[in-house]
Probable RNA 2'-phosphotransferase (Mucilaginibacter robiniae), 184 residues
Amino acid sequence: MLSDKETTRISKFLSLVLRHQPDVIGIELDENGWTDVSTLLQHMNNHGMKISPAILEHVVATNNKKRFAFNETHMQIRASQGHTVNIDLGYTPMQPPNVLYHGTATHHVASIMQDGLEKRSRQHVHLSTDRDTAIKVGQRHGQPEVLIIDAQSMYKDGYTFYISDNGVWLTDYVPRQYITSSQH
């Protein structure tokens, strides 16, 4: 159907408009991040991205990080997490596993160990259930380092956790006392 390169190009564009800048193509996200599929396709086509419903289905289904989700009827679509626009994903607070992981670049570790993990421009801090995923995340930013998060202690101390549709654990902030560097 599509080459891997074309699928990746479309996926990156969807990330841009469904997570960060819907106004780039003139769409709006509702309060939960959803937008109408037919409107999205029309606006993408108007901006030179010739995408059919079948191509959109393929991109969503084959995204290895499950970044996007359709509603039950496949009439609406949204990004699963990672938004910089203000939306409420409607996730229910959940008890996390005992330990979670955060991948970062080694040049960020000193700052994180001083200030904790902050969400910055995103709506949440993103955490993984396994080291391999955290390493892959860290590699996107430089030499990777995996931080170990004592999620169970955070939870017992009243911090709220959510799990996104694609299995990423989300929280608002991770104070430094719950973080251990895997290098130390």
Notes: Helices lie at 4-20, 37-46, 53-62, 106-115, 131-139, 151-156. The mean pLDDT is 92. The domain at 4-79 is CATH 1.10.10.970 (Arc Repressor Mutant, subunit A). DSSP finds six helices and eleven strands in the chain.
